[in-house]
Design goal:
The chain is built from five helices and nine strands. It is of the alpha+beta class. The protein has two domains: 92 residues, no CATH class; 105 residues, Immunoglobulin-like (Sandwich), CATH 2.60.40. The strands form two sheets. It has a five-stranded mixed β-sheet, with no helix packed on it. A hairpin with a 4-residue loop joins strand 8 and strand 9. It is rod-shaped. It starts with a helix and ends with a strand.
């Protein structure tokens, strides 16, 4: 029965062991919190490392149970301040999250048309980083060498609005009076904040 008496004594000692004062827990929590400040994302890990260093000292003062109470309460306090929303709201983390945006591209390139022909072009709007906006695109035909605008190919439609992702179709038409040369289908897209430009070359043969 000796082992039974020893177990009862151990249980009694654990039940009567002193608890760490609130002031001591607060001081440990503050020291651990300051030690973790340089790297927000590493707070829980640094807290545990510092707490381990204090454990031996506290054990000498009030026993292992005393040390465990003090360290556990301090670490829990610091870890609670290291929750995900706090990290995401910090200036450092805010610069790490990519900004939602969209890209635009128009294809095909270097299409060749003859008079009285038409060709189809596609502007693809690609959302990035969770972008969910609506974009308005306008299209027109330009010619770097200039000339009589009335003899330029025409594009239809000239304006389209759509949420992303999407493919916008443009039809470029020529007639018997269309001047030959190299043209650009110029598409400008905007969501009110961000503007994207595409310039797609094509040729008209006479």
């Amino acid at each position: 029965m000796k082992w039974f008496r020893n177990d009862r004594v151990d249980e009694r000692l654990r039940a009567e062991r002193p608890k760490a004062p609130d002031e001591l827990v607060s001081r440990i929590s503050k020291a651990t919190h300051l030690g973790a400040r340089p790297s927000t994302r590493r707070r829980p890990a640094l807290a545990l490392v510092l707490a381990a260093g204090l454990f031996a000292t506290l054990a000498g003062l009030g026993g292992v149970g005393y040390a465990k109470d003090a360290v556990r309460n301090a670490v829990n306090s610091v870890t609670a301040h290291s929750s995900a929303p706090a990290v995401q709201d910090s200036p450092v983390a805010g610069n790490s999250y990519p900004t939602p945006k969209y890209k635009a591209k128009t294809t095909p390139h270097h299409t060749k048309l003859r008079q009285n022909q038409s060709g189809n072009f596609t502007t693809t709007l690609i959302p990035k980083n969770g972008y969910t906006g609506t974009v308005t695109c306008t299209a027109k035909v330009v010619k770097s060498s200039g000339g009589d605008v009335s003899r330029y190919p025409t594009v239809s439609p000239t304006t389209q609005t759509s949420p992303t992702p999407t493919n916008l179709q443009w039809s470029v038409s020529t007639n018997s009076n269309t001047a030959g040369g190299t043209y650009l289908l110029k598409v400008v897209c905007s969501d009110g904040t961000t503007t994207r430009h595409t310039n797609t070359p094509f040729q008209v043969k006479t």
